[in-house]
Design brief:
Elements: H1 10-22, H2 25-32, H3 36-50, E1 55-58, E2 61-64, H4 66-92, E3 98-105, H5 112-122, E4 126-133, H6 135-143, E5 149-152, E6 161-176, E7 196-199, H7 205-216, E8 222-226, H8 230-238, E9 244-247, H9 252-256, E10 260-261, E11 270-279, H10 286-305, H11 310-316
Parallel strand pairs: 3-4, 3-5, 7-8
Antiparallel strand pairs: 1-2, 5-11, 6-9, 6-10, 6-11
Helix pairs in contact: 1-2, 1-3, 1-4, 2-3
Amino acid sequence: MKYNDMHVTLRQLEAFTAVANHLSFTRAAEQLNLSQPAVSMQIKQLESQLGQALFEQMGKKIHLTEAGSDVRKFARSILQQVDDMETALTSLSGLERGTLSISVATTAHYFAPKLLKIFCERYPGVNVKLDVTNREQLVSQLENNIVDMVIMGRPPENVDVESGAFMENPLVLIAPADHAFTREKSIQLKRLANEVFLVREVGSGTRKAMELFFAQHNIPMIMGMEVSSDEAIKRSVQAGLGLGIMSRDAIQNELQLNLLSAPDVLHFPIMRHWYVMHRKGKRLSPIAQAFKDFLLQEAAGILTKEPTLRDAAQAQTPQMPALKAPLPSSTESKYAPARPKYVLTGPDGQPIPPAPRK
Ligand code: PGA
């Protein structure tokens, strides 16, 4: 008999297993909450589907035939598999288990792991796939709907997405720690026209923002090396190959260790935002939805409280406004963006009380 011609049902296997376990139609019917004729009917239909007798009657007792013994093993394992499938789907529909597949802009990898650590502690059954790539690749991933969501600097114009801003992303000027600019305040923007700039590859969101900024302020940009990694740009700036413009999130360590400086140039920082986004209409899994909510509601608070993260950059860029400007509301998102609170913290992570009034 071909598989397609067989119409064995789970109900028949269930009835068969109950009879085989009790070797009694009456007790099987009790267990299944069915009438005895209904159970007998299921067994008859199963025997006719399989073309074999599964039970034989000897006196008052029934016994499994050899075929019945074989079918019992398979029936058990089939019913167990169905049970497992139900359990798996139930847990997938909750937050106990599941895969979160996210892609983040190269620059966002400086803060994404910190957030993922907290999220994974909260949902230990979650398996995370994290891809780090540039803006152009992220837009293509969004277009092809191959990840749950994406974190990047600005929603794309040509893909229909649902997006929400969750944190400010100021881009600062970076220079070697001993650059002459570090001894000055409120440097005129036009002086940047004499500097060489290291730029990210075409396709990078940071590069796009940088080019736009120079064009908007009508400052010619002398382009030096094109470098496809933030890390390599930082090392190149340190080595004196030119200046750079980079997300403040990417240079925390270098500022703290005094390997780089973020000079006080007028019109800086270039204020951008970090967005979480996915294709419009995408059905997010519960875990993906939980991560999106976590970003929108908690990420800014978590990262701005981190003493080693934003404080170092804040200290080096005194002209930078504290994070008090409201985030832009996304036209696409139904979520209200999180409003970060800027809390100054000491080395012990505790908030520093305001100085006493004189
Ligand atoms: P980038 O990302 O790493 O492509 O420069 C930042 C962004 O999306 O703006």
